[in-house]
Amino acid sequence: MAGRRRYSLGILLLVFLIGFLIGAILIYASAQSGWINVGGTMPSIELTFVYGSEKQKWIEEAKEGFERWFESTFFVDVKCNFIAMGSKEIITQIVNEQLRPVAISPAASIWIPYLNEKWRETHGGMIVDEASCKPLVVSPIVLATWNNSFYQQHPFKGIRDLIDIALNDPDGSDGVLKYGHTNPRLSNSGAMIILIQFAAAAGKEPGELTIFDLSNPLVQQRVRVLEAEAIQYGESTGFFGDWAVEGGPSTISVFAVYESVVIAKSRAARQAWGDSLIAVYPEEGVLLSDHPFAILNAPWVSPLQVFAAEKLYEYLMRPEVQQAAQKYGFRPANPDVPLDPLIFSPERGVSAVIPSKILSPPPGFILENAIIAWDAVRNRGVK
After folding, report:
1. I need a surface site. Which of 32, 49, 159, 220 has the fewest CB within 10 A?
2. Which letter, b or e, does each residue of 126-162 get, where b requires 16 or more Cβ atoms within 10 Å of its Cβ?
3. Residue-number span of the structural domain to which 118 is assigned
4. pLDDT at 7 (0 to 100)
5. Is 14 part of any domain?
């Protein structure tokens, strides 16, 4: 028995030494190739990670802990260049090579096929393995509304109900329905909600939409009816949510945002207006802002940078880091982390269980054409 233990310990020690030697060789080779910097006593890796600005507070909070953990575990200094940016802008800057990140995390998976299509058009090939993308945190797109001031009088269940209300309502600020969402050319939440709007108008799901649906005059007219009630197209979801809550029920009655915005703003809304801000999960289904983590297959990304990015993903999926994301209104992507019932509760305007079907995103060219179609039906009197 003792001999077997010594044999097992010997095998473990051998595996450790082999792993250590491989790591040392990789670091040496990377330094010779210019993939890492060697100065002073400790080599360093530069890790540029560009992510959707919605999760900036959480990512910045996790950044320092990751740097300390990586250095103490691998004896390599990782220089983290973390950049918060709108999802559409992330794609544009990568395709134009204005940014050369190692890894990205746009707000939703709908942007990954779009990035690959744009990269294929300009460079050839695919820059992201779509099958390898994994969510970091989750927040569904919802229709935020004021419980007493609007919902009790107009208990709508989704987009089709809002279109019916809009059909019998004066346009814009003169009617009872004052609607809004962010500009889909600038913001992920705006892109997500217009996909749901066009799908609802066509009687389909977003993943089933075709170019014909988006150009169909009957479909466009139904979306136009709802867009005529729009009083604001925000530039970013966070600022749009701030504006809506500051303005209160008399300014806007229904607005499309992430569930996390409702959670973050629920207490301020109640204190300011004596009314509850609640999330309506569209009965047609919800698209998830699932914040996919993707490592780029690009010529500027080294094997050691890939390794560092993989470790960043693993760190962000740690239970304690996922738990910290919940205070910012995000659902954990790690299935081993339970929802905090004090955060995901009716008191914060949301449901712990998402009551609507989770919808699949469409291909990138459908997203692009949906934005073009929205330009044809948007309220021209609104910025």
Report:
1. 32
2. ebbeeeebebbbbbbbbbbbbeebbbeebebebbbbb
3. 40-135+292-329
4. 47
5. no
